[in-house]
Specification:
By secondary structure, this protein is α+β, with helices and mostly antiparallel strands. The protein has a single domain, classed as 2-Layer Sandwich (Mth169, Chain: A), CATH 3.30.1280.10. It has two helices and three strands. It has helices at residues 17-28, 53-67; strands spanning 3-10, 41-46, 73-80. It has a three-stranded antiparallel β-sheet, with helices on one face. The relative contact order is 0.31.
Length: 90
């Protein structure tokens, strides 16, 4: 079944304590070369049937009104996954 992926990130001016904690842990664990981390949210919406432009618009509306807090977060991506596997799965 097709999926629509929605990524939500904290606005740049909003403090990100989880990202800051991760950024502090990276060098202690031997991961160097990273200057910062921002932690966001990812949603995968499974679609019954074909992904239409109307359905994508519904996903965009849901992303901006339900999946994110527009006061402190930005929706950074709403798009159809390229295939039937989640990114990173094998």
């Amino acid at each position: 079944m097709p999926r629509i992926v929605v990524d939500v990130m904290p606005k740049p001016e909003i403090l990100d304590p989880q990202g800051k904690a991760i950024a502090g842990a990276l060098p202690r664990l031997g991961f160097t070369g990273f200057s910062g981390v921002r932690q966001g949210k990812r949603f995968e919406l499974t679609v019954d049937g074909e992904v239409t432009e109307e359905l994508l618009e519904q996903a965009r509306t849901a992303a901006s009104t339900l999946l994110s807090n527009p006061v402190i977060e930005d929706v950074t991506r709403v798009e159809v996954l390229a295939d039937n596997t989640a990114e990173g799965e094998q």
